Amino acid sequence: MTTIIAGDRSGTGKTTITLALLAFLRKKSAHVQSFKVGPDYIDSMFHSYITGRPCRNLDPILTSVSYVKSCFAKHCQGVDYGVIEGVMGLFDGVPLEKAGGTEGQEAGGATGGLYQDYGSTAHIARILGIPVVLVIDCSRLSGSVAAIAHGYSYLDPNINVVGVILNRVGSDRHLTLLETALKPLNIPIFGVIYRQETLTIPDRHLGLVPTQELPELDRLFDRLAHLAQTCFNWEQLLPYLTQSPSLPVPPSPRPPIPQSPKIAIAKDKAFNFYYPDNLEILQQLGAKLCYWSPLEDENLPKDTAGLYFGGGFPEMFAEALSSNTKALHSVKQGIIKGMPTYAECGGLMYLCEEIVDFEGKSWPMVGILPTTAKMVKKLTLGYRQAIATGSNFLLNQGETIWGHEFHRSELTILPEQPLYNLSSWQKNSLIYGEGWHCYHLHASYLHLHFGGCPQIAEKFFRSTLDFSRDLALD
């Protein structure tokens, strides 16, 4: 069995508590598989650092209900424990008419295929049929904790809240008030976390600071493991984390194509937002992945046939990226020669003429896109339905996909014909045109999960295969 660590709202402390659980289980030398509900990259990095296994995102908006179920079943094989970290509050999703037929029924939506909480933690709990542990921020509560626990437990009869963790408890007296209020509900208290003023993870404009930039992580996770050991009722909690051996095994992927074109993945402190599934899907198709650093490497890997730039924080390392002029030139020349290139968000920014950081300083970049990425205070955030405005090497005109935006930059010049017309999850709410296409380059602020658009991964792979054959003939 696996459980979901859910919150009563955003900021309730479920990430810290999930990390504490993972850290303690790893101290037991256990094999632990973690999952993260939603599109988040950074929380997943912390999971993976602790467990030594890629954390898997469970996001039916970016993928599908069937993909979420198969991903969960596949990666629970051969592990001792499974832990899922939720997103926002338990029932915080989007009202979305995304699926119909059998999949729509499995998604647990209302009649007619309209889901009021599509993509929420509760949605994932329903479709996977697993219990929920609710984290409640008690810092400004006493008796009202019972109303919260009762409401979350009984709002949806298909959600099984098996226990609560009381976070940010102020004192023993405060705990007594909370316990007294909860006692008539017969909801088990799996853990009590007193206020931890000194136990914090640094954050900045897009959330937590990524693991690669934090040298003291091992010490932090030791403290979290100790916290979990002393503050949780493991006799009650552990059975809900112990993995069931009876999950069905998904079918094996199809055999890869014998040729192995080399795709260079930009991976360093500036670029590290990648879904593990995206990389594995490319490998299953037959691609050979090699990692390189636009911060430190002067040239692309030898025989590169394709480039993949994920998101990240290029604005935080703009000076170092700009000073590596040989890497900038190598990337630009590769794209001009027709090397297939896929870039998301931070990768898009890197390919612009320059990045203007939060202090207003300008830093020259690759310059393949005739625009500037400028940091702004406004956060652009949300799921997007994207409709291709024309046909190119990855998309057919009119093709519709789902992606996610999360950035605090904007482009000073937009393309005359954007890659996509975007709309939000609300019906008939066109936002703007977005994304660039030139040469064999696809660059967009949109983050995609290839589990939801495998055709893009396959077309990207095919284009790198063609390019590698052309290289062999030169």
Automatic annotation (TrEMBL):
Keyword Nucleotide-binding: yes
Stated name of the protein: Cobyrinate a,c-diamide synthase
Ranges of residues in domain CobQ/CobB/MinD/ParA nucleotide binding: 4-206
Increases nucleophilicity of active site Cys, annotated site positions: 447
Further facts: The a and c carboxylates of cobyrinate are activated for nucleophilic attack via formation of a phosphorylated intermediate by ATP. CbiA catalyzes first the amidation of the c-carboxylate, and then that of the a-carboxylate.
BP terms from Gene Ontology: cobalamin biosynthetic process
Enzyme class: ligase
Domain of life: Bacteria
Gene field: cbiA
NCBIfam families, A to Z: cobB, PRK01077.1
Alphabetized CDD domains for the sequence: CobB_N, GATase1_CobB
Record text about domains: Comprises of two domains. The C-terminal domain contains the binding site for glutamine and catalyzes the hydrolysis of this substrate to glutamate and ammonia. The N-terminal domain is anticipated to bind ATP and cobyrinate and catalyzes the ultimate synthesis of the diamide product. The ammonia produced via the glutaminase domain is probably translocated to the adjacent domain via a molecular tunnel, where it reacts with an activated intermediate.
UniProt xrefs under Pfam families: CbiA, GATase_3
InterPro entries referenced in this protein's UniProt entry, alphabetically: CbiA/CobB_synth (IPR004484), Class_I_gatase-like (IPR029062), CobQ/CobB/MinD/ParA_Nub-bd_dom (IPR002586), GATase_3 (IPR011698), P-loop_NTPase (IPR027417)
Stretches assigned to the CobB/CobQ-like glutamine amidotransferase domain: 262-451
Active-site feature positions: 345 (nucleophile)
Free-text function comment from the UniProt entry: Catalyzes the ATP-dependent amidation of the two carboxylate groups at positions a and c of cobyrinate, using either L-glutamine or ammonia as the nitrogen source.
Alphabetized GO MF terms: ATP binding; cobyrinic acid a,c-diamide synthase activity
EC number: 6.3.5.11
Reaction(s) the record says it catalyses: cob(II)yrinate + 2 L-glutamine + 2 ATP + 2 H2O = cob(II)yrinate a,c diamide + 2 L-glutamate + 2 ADP + 2 phosphate + 2 H(+)
HAMAP family xref list: CobB_CbiA
Keywords: ATP-binding, Cobalamin biosynthesis, Glutamine amidotransferase, Ligase, Magnesium, Nucleotide-binding
Coiled-coil regions, chain positions: none
Cofactor dependency: Mg(2+)
Annotated pathway: Cofactor biosynthesis; adenosylcobalamin biosynthesis; cob(II)yrinate a,c-diamide from sirohydrochlorin (anaerobic route): step 10/10
